[in-house]
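Hello Y.,

Per our agreement to keep a running log of every chain we model this quarter, I'm adding this entry. I've kept the format consistent with earlier entries: sequence first, then predicted structure.
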Amino acid sequence: MKKRGFTLIEVLMAMSIMTVIFGCSLINVKNYSAIGNRMEVEVFGNSLVNFIVASKKHCRDSGTGGYMYFLSGKNTIQLSCNSSVVKKLKMPEGFSDLYINRAGSKIYIDNKGFTSDACTIRFRDRNGGAHYITVSVGTANVDFKG
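Predicted structure for the entry above:
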């Protein structure tokens, strides 16, 4: 006559194995989120630098000046020339606190593709980390500090 069922030791071993696997998976999910956030910060930071450089190029090539507006309420950056929007860049979902240390939250780009004042742009990632982009005058350098 065979007994059916599990012994107490078998049940405890199965539960301990499941606990270890569950604990490892939680650690991996947390690391995955952190890695994903870092990657998205790099992608957006580089996209913003490219947007600024492309905006300067557009103004230079078209021979018209324009403004880059930093719309923090909409988490959007846009280039406007001659009262029309030329291009936009939207921040990733969960990013916030788009800020530029310029009056009116805008940068003027002249018809030669230069800005008249240096500035710093800040944004925050999903974890609240602050990231900065500096726009220099004279060298026309734009630098992302991830």
